[in-house]
Design goal:
Layout (H helix, E strand, L loop, with lengths): L18 H20 L6 E2 L6 H4 L4 E2 L2 E4 L3 E7 L5 E5 L2 E5 L8 E7 L2 E3 L1 E6 L5 E12 L12 E6 L4 E5 L2 E4 L4 E9 L1 E5 L1
Antiparallel strand pairs: 1-2, 3-8, 4-7, 5-6, 6-10, 7-9, 9-15, 10-14, 11-12, 11-15, 13-14
Length: about 190
């Protein structure tokens, strides 16, 4: 079709993305992710939660194993108006204001053993539901070798060893800590 001189068609051409480049990036990311997830710091496997990404890939979950005979504990009072912080070395609990409805005595216990775990009690009870999420920082500085792969805090049953729920977690490699958020108390363990 011939257009009159000086006129332009009203169509615009949008370049197509380079799909082969995107596919290569996606494949590389998938391989790196699988390689990181395959790293195993411990022989203690636990069944994966069906909602956890490793379970979707059919990969086992391993508790981070860093043996210690040290038994650490701290107890403190948290108030509804100001919240509060409990800390033992790099282990820390931060309770924001209005997370509890009454003054609450909380104990943070890091027991001896192989697993990097922390247990909480509130007013002597093993369980507590918070009105707002609290922040917990767990330390794996006692590990002789740095763990490989993604570290995640899990709500778990220390009696049966069952991993119940992965917690939103962030790892700080320089500080050798895993920080996670929860709206309830009981026991938590670090795994990958």
């Amino acid at each position: 079709i011939a257009l009159p001189r000086g006129s332009h068609p009203r169509t615009t051409v949008t370049p197509m993305p380079d799909l082969s480049r995107r596919r290569r990036r996606a494949a590389t990311l998938a391989v790196l992710t699988l390689a990181a997830l395959a790293c195993q710091p411990s022989d203690r496997e636990r069944p994966a939660s069906p909602t956890e990404p490793r379970a979707l890939l059919g990969l086992p979950i391993h508790l981070l194993s860093c043996p210690t005979s040290e038994d650490l504990a701290v107890t403190g009072l948290v108030s509804p108006d100001s919240g509060g912080t409990l800390q033992i070395r790099k282990w820390k609990l931060q309770v924001p204001p209005h997370a509890v409805s009454e003054p609450t005595q909380i104990t943070m216990h890091v027991p001896p053993g192989d697993a990097v775990q922390v247990q909480f009690s509130a007013n002597g009870a093993d369980h507590l539901q918070f009105r707002l999420p609290v922040t917990v920082t767990a330390s794996y500085e006692r590990c002789l070798l740095p763990p490989l792969g993604l570290l995640v805090a899990w709500y778990w049953d220390p009696t049966t060893g069952a991993l119940l729920q992965p917690m939103p977690s962030r790892t700080n490699l320089l500080a050798e800590t895993v920080t996670f958020w929860t709206d309830h108390f009981s026991g938590f363990v670090i795994a990958n």
